[in-house]
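Suppose a classmate hands you a notebook page containing two proteins, each written out with its sequence and a corresponding row of structure tokens. How would you begin to make sense of it? This section walks through that situation. The first entry is reproduced here exactly as it would appear on such a page.
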Amino acid sequence: MGSVLLEALTAVGRLFLHPLTYIFVLGLFFYHIKRVKRERRHFHTKVQDVVSALLSPVPKALIAGVTAAVVFVVTGVELSYALLLLFSAVWLLQLPFRHASWYSFTVTAAVSMLLLPFLPAGGTGSAWLNDMLASLQEVNMFHLGVLLVTLMLLEAVLFRTSAASSPLLQKSPRGKMVGAHTISNLWLMPAVVLVPAGGAASQGWWPLLDGTTGTFGFMLIPFLVGYQVKAQSVYPDVASERVGARLFVTALLAGAFFAGSFFLPVLIYAAAAVVLLGRASAGWAFEAADHSSVSIYTARENGLTVLGVLPGSTAEKLNILPGETIVKTNGVQVETQAAFYEALQQSSAYAKLEVVDRDGEKRIAQASIYENDHYLIGCLFIPDDENTNLSLRGLRSLVVLRQDRRETADDEEKQEDTHEEKSS
């Protein structure tokens, strides 16, 4: 047991020696910076800051990593140095796609599996490269199959249960400004695998490993999984459930082909193809059907449809959800952001909202407003016009302008009444 503990501690250190760990973190960082820039461009604020977005998936990613590690260690999944280099090269080719679905290691593993039969065994003129290619010829496809199916299953479960959403603005086919949500997340889960050279796994009792085949050690490998779709006709939680279910079916089909490969080895490549085609079709089919439907985030004549809610805001405390409609604010009928902002100013310390929920039922939501609260108490809406949302300064200027116009109109009406009285 002492050697096992020593290998476990060494595995943690190896995680921080792996270049993919830092490449993944940088990739996640720039992915969320891009999201924040889009949110600021559309709403003059970020929905979630980069650090929070990086840290919030960590707990479930760790749980998923432990689950994967148990499967990998029990089944004796071994990844050679050459295979890790192949994974790294394939993943770097995925990076320019700048899409969470293509950042996933499920794609990396599937593409690598399909590439292996076509790689030469040597003859490159480089001794080091020839050694790597020779090592790839000896890859155990059973280990790759376990890796692929496990990652696909975990990705489906994670996306269905904990995908995050980010609101955005887009043009409808009729040229109107409507809202939508990008439902996505990326989970960086470190999982233990076996690598050549170590002591714990070669003691003969290791599950599914023959101790005479060589020595192995533990290594924590960073596996990045994730997915992304855009939805405008259904709510974010509904979209993640539907797409997550399709991803889960894809994982089960891949698992079935993997099981069949015990009887017909060529089916292991079919499992990889199923993962690639299933993941792609899950998103494409959903988005095609969604794009042909009308957005639920559109401007309405009676009330303001909520497109998004800022975390930790007053709106979140009031349990306001995307897709709900705010009809009245502090007793005033509201149909525009300017009217909503102006109604909030009538009681700067308190807000009472009449909200129509997703089922069409009305409810009253009320809460105190504090000095540092968002100027729309954390609600994000479709623009009042066809251009863009106004910032706090823009809304203030618009409200002042409207008040001036109303006062001017009242003064003119009074002058007309006075003139008529004098004439009579």
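The notebook's second entry, a different protein, reads as follows.
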Amino acid sequence: MTSYSVLASGRRFSVLATWPGMYADHTRKVTTLDDGDVAGDLAAYLTHLSEGAWDAAPWLDTYPVIEAGIAELIGHLRGPGTIPQISLSGAGYRHVGQWSFHDVTDMLHSCLPDVLPLLSRAQRLTVADELAEDAAGRAEALQVLPFPQEPGVSASRAWQILEVTRVLGNGRSGPLPDGAAGWMVRAWGRGRSVAERWAARNRLARIEQLVAACRKSGGRGGAEPHPDPCAHLEVPRDASDAELDVFRVVAPSGRRHCRETSPFGPMVITGSGRAGSKPDVVAVLQPGDDEGFVKALGVWTLSVPWSPVRVPTTFAEGVPCT
């Protein structure tokens, strides 16, 4: 969630990029302008674009669409032509209604095309380089964290993945996936390593996916953050059966115990058979075990896909791929 600010020096206004590394914040100059209002608008719009993209990267299935739009913008900035309005199509994706996707869509379609044409050729190129470097940081995070590994250098932008964004607060509140970063903090606390945050991400993403799959299959489902993050699922046994199987899928957080539970712990599935029955442990699974969830809950769990985030191939080493 790189944020952008303006530093005034006499009649010149520098737009600065700031992001949290492993140990400290890091800042670099993006470009310098003569107009303070234009610099302020540019900094605000770049912040919206970056924070929306960083929040979307680990949670939203629309994230590849976002990066494709940013790559298109970079191409226009590096070219000789005008900056057109860029439209993002969410057709076929589940997460088109999420705030971060909407915000990035607005930046690419309305806000940035208004301010970027006011920049000189040199200024356009430096903004393009900044957007590419920010996107490369997201790609790095998605490449190394699922294994799990950590970013290679302390100044990498990848360290900021899976955090509530610092300026706009994306991820702080709301249901999954809009408030996922906030759910993570409330369940497992602050100060977790990026590998631990990624493990927590997988558990919350599985909860969100199971709720969506349950609803798509004709059942009733909801997610709860307390006392431990869980999915509550009521699933018809078959199309002709009015009674429901009731399940809870819990990601233990350890908040009710003396010591914290590792985010790497398995998810616990309990079921009551029919509504009103005493719950029994059905299975204990890792979030990526698709086959295990099918055996425990049913084939309906495959009606909405769950998988680790796909890494867009849009960026490699900080420049758009051709």
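A careful reader of the second entry would note: Residues 3-156 form one domain.
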